[in-house]
Amino acid sequence: MEMSAVFLHLLMAAFGTLVLHMLKFKATADQTPCIPRKFDQDSIVCVCNATYCDYQGIEGGGLLFTYYNTFMTTRDGLRMQRDIGSFDDGVKPNKYIFSVGNETKQTIIGFGGAFTDAAVLTMNSLSADARRNLINSYYDQQGIEYNLGRIPMASCDFSTHIYSYDDVDGDLKLENFKLADEDIKYKIPAILDAIKVSKRNVSLFGSPWSSPAWMKTNGNMTGKGQIKGSPGGEYFKAWANYFVKFIQAYKAQGINIWGLTAQNEPSDGMISGFAFQCLGWTPELQRDFISQDLGPALEANGLGDVKLMILDDQRVFLPYWAETVLNDPNAAKYVSGIAVHWYEDLVVPTSALDRTYKKFGNNYFILNTEACEQDIINKNRSVLLGNWYRGERYFTDIVQDLKHGVAGWVDWNLALNMQGGPNWENNRADSPVIVNADKGEFYKQPMFYAMGHFSKFVRPGSKVISHVDNLPGSSDLQVIFVEREDNSIVANMVNINDQEVYNITITDSMVPGYLNYQIPPKSFVTFIWYRK
Q1: Cβ–Cβ contacts within 10 Å for residue 7, how many?
Q2: CA trace torsion 193, 197, 200, 206 (10° rounding)
Q3: Which of 179, 255, 341, 500 has the fewest CB within 10 Å, making it most exposed?
Q4: Which residues form the Glycosyl hydrolase family 30 TIM-barrel domain (predicted)?
């Protein structure tokens, strides 16, 4: 009898091992590996061209209960490498324990990037097949499945020149309003291609950098200036109608606009001599513009369901900006969300988000709408091909934002050239994808995969879910858990330590056993499993 029990135990163990190997083979069968290239940085880029590109495969569903998927990216060169493991009974937990709870917070809207002039012009410098691989890398089901896209309304600094949609002085009725060649020839075709390949609904939102110069108090699209007059006046009415005409013009081209931000970085337009396109607003002025002009204009034209977002600037302005606008019911009724940028996140504490989410999170979402890495001092070092720290910064900022009420994260330029442009003011930056037009190829940076661990797996409609852990306060391991609509859990972890391996255990009261794992130094790891 004892021998029979031993034999049965060995047979079950062998069967479990066989199942695990079969699952692993099936899981990795549709992945296309990275072709790595090393430049002068501490990690690699993945090289794509007209005939080859790495793809992450289709995640799919139906993962067996008590089994989990992992996706691993490391500074040493792994890129979202998939594997499968199982929750095990009868094993001891590791040093660091994470227990998943059941309390949920904000609903995830999604992740994406911006269709700037620079991005789409750069895409178009590639061959048709290479360009297709670039768009597919972001929006296709085999890629990282972005579902958001930001559209600058007319020009921004990442354009080749300054322009608006109506440069006819005094045209308050906007009879001369029309989209630019940059929209018709470049942005709209790229957006339509992204929509076509996506299996998800792609939500697009517009953001203005400046009104036409003739509407501004300084008569220039750059530099300190505001809309002439006051809310309710003819210039404010004309500016509100500009938003309406933008949405209608894109609709005529087959593109529905999901949302708007009332102004990109309104604080910029309050700075004397600001070098880029800008338009100045105080929270009080934005409140009155929305209540008297923009909100009524959208509603009167059947666009009341467009998601209007306030602020679209640094979190340092929170919660005051949100309080000023949203405590006025006449403005608040037109608003859906609060947009923030990441540029001061290293110095502005997350408590600004916490206070805002506590006051307004039940009725208004918070969305990060712009982020990029650049070298302010040495523009020649704005693009760092293969720099791991920049990807790590993306990953850790997303984790922190999601922990503190933010519902999604939108990167800046989808692609840039080898110099970090084009940009008419030479304000060059880095991007998750850098295009080398001379060689007909493009490079996926660590930032691309940092984004991908969220955009592909933290699906729209997911909810941030509670957990408890025993990590020390000084831990270099940062974690976020979300619950997806299909009753699966996603855990995203980043280890920023250069040497320490974190031996972790994940427990879930709805799944028997322990998930034991070693998180290597300088790595991003995603876990996915299904609950009962």
Answers
A1: 10
A2: -10
A3: 500
A4: 108-458
Please name the residues in contact with 185: beta carbons below 8 A apart, sequence gap of 6 or more: none
Half-sphere exposure (Cβ direction) of 57: Cα atoms closer than 13 Å = 19
524 pairs with which residues across the strands?
A: 73, 494
- Coarse DSSP helix, strand, coil percentages of the chain, rounded to the nearest 5 percent: 30, 25, 40
- In 3D space, the residue among 306, 317, 308, 203 whose CA is nearest the CA of residue 270 turns out to be 317
b/e sequence 452-481, b meaning 16+ C-beta within 10 Å: bbbbbbbbbebbbbebebebeeebbbbbbb
- Average pLDDT over every residue of 438-460: 98
- Whether residue 319 is preceded by a cis peptide bond, meaning omega within 30 degrees of 0, is yes
Structural tokens at position 424: 């008419």
Give the model's pLDDT for residue 379: 81
d(CA 140, CA 121): 20
Rounded CA gap, 450 and 529, in Å? 20
- Three-class SS state of 470: coil
386 SS3 class? coil
- Residue 174's H or E segment, with its range, is none
451: tokens are 């984004």
DSSP secondary structure, 62-104, as one string: -PPTTEEEEEEEETTS--SEEEEEE-BSS----SEEEEEEEEE
212 preceded by a cis bond (ω within 30 of 0): no
The residues annotated as belonging to the active site are: 265, 370
Q: How far apart are CA 149 and CA 287, in angstroms?
A: 25
Q: Return the pLDDT at 28.
A: 54
Structure tokens at 161: 């020149």
pLDDT of residue 8: 46
Q: Which spans in 376-425 are helix H?
A: 388-403
Both structure tokens of 261: 């931000």
How many Å apart are CA 258 and CA 248, to the nearest integer? 12
Tell me the CA end-to-end span of the chain in Å, nearest whole number: 34
Give the strand order in the sheet containing 463-469.
Answer: 81-86, 67-74, 523-530, 488-495, 477-483, 463-469, 96-107, 502-508, 511-519
Q: Name the one residue in this structure whose structure tokens are 């204009």.
A: 297
pLDDT(16) > 70: no
